[in-house]
Amino acid sequence: MTDDIDQPTNAPEDQSPKRAGFVALIGEPNAGKSTLLNRMVGAKVSIVTHKVQTTRSRIRGVCMAGRSQIVFVDTPGLFRPRRRLDRAMVAAAWGGAADADIIVLLIEAHRGATEGVKAIVDSLKDKIPRGTKVALAINKIDKIKAENLLRLTESMNEAFPFARTFMISAERGYGIDTLRDWLAEEVPQGEWFYPEDQIADLPMRMIAAEMTREKLTLRMHEELPYQLTVETENWEDRKDGSTRIDQVIYVARDGHKGIILGAGGETIKVIGQQARAEIATFLERPVHLFLQVKVRPNWLEEKERYSEMGLDFKDGD
Question: How does the record classify its membrane topology (predicted)?
């Protein structure tokens, strides 16, 4: 009889098939789509503010969940468009939803089934290809009583045949793992679209511009953020390991330029410091950020500005 010999054991490598798919996050402005995207991806790739209509283009964030790659499409909030930019944003949102493998509709628990939410649900029936799975994510559940949450869940599922309903808090992280695990199982089998360590498919120039625009949006008056855009005009990776970034802030009026600059240039200085710090953290290298403010009265009607934002100018017609 031989003595038992301990053999080294290695955990078996996961041999389950790879999965990859696109998941569109839709909802009214400020429903929490950008917060959810950033939570899923584990880094800030989408602008987050308390102001509505801040996400302008379809921002893709990449989340790895086991053998599944979930590519989130954070669409602009769906609302009643009034201007060319509004119409292009709404078209981008529905375009992102129609192209997705799975759609997640986010609604705010405390606001419930608003007229805007009802309009989105009605549009889902017409604008989404037959067979596309749609999940409901009720966000900000800490702001509502349990009995009211149950009634909201029942009424929403009576209005539309959602594949699943999730109770989440995107800000606090509650319920996020459950939603992620379900999506990981539901996306189609197939090879990954992006390298495993890539978190977004936006060019770094655009991510940097979005970060600066977020700081502007948080700082400026209510009416101003939708009258400005930020473009990265120059990007230089230097031999010393730092990066020089030159950005232009386009505004529609001379008065807006004065607001952004502030007395003695103090406001833009603070915005520049905040944006530079965030970009440097994201890039993990020193950043030299230079901001200019230019007045272009008709930038909202310029095709080039829409291309820089990742929107289709024709969608605004």
Answer: Peripheral membrane protein
Query: Is 231 flagged in the annotation as binding?
Result: no
Is 28 marked as binding a ligand? yes
Say if residue 29 carries a ligand binding annotation: yes
Per the annotation, does 76 bind a ligand? yes
- Is residue 277 a known part of a binding site? no
Judge whether 129 is annotated as a binding position.
no
pLDDT tens column, 189-217: 999 988 887 766 667 788 888 889 888 88
Burial code (b: 16+ CB inside 10 Å, e: under 16) for 102-134 equals: bbbbbbbbbbbeeebbeebbeebeeebeeebbb
**240 labeled binding residue:** no
Query: What's the length of the chain?
Result: 317
Residue 227 to residue 251: CA distance in whole angstroms? 6
Domains of the chain: 19-186 (3.40.50.300), 204-316 (3.30.300.20)
Q: Is 133 annotated as a binding residue?
A: no
Q: Supply the pTM of this predicted model.
A: 0.63
Sheet holding 228-237, edge to edge: 228-237, 243-251, 287-295
Q: Which residues is 74 bridged to in the sheet?
A: 25, 59
Q: pLDDT tens digits for 125-182? A: 877 778 889 999 999 999 999 999 999 999 999 999 999 999 999 999 999 999 999 9
Tell me whether residue 234 is annotated as binding: no
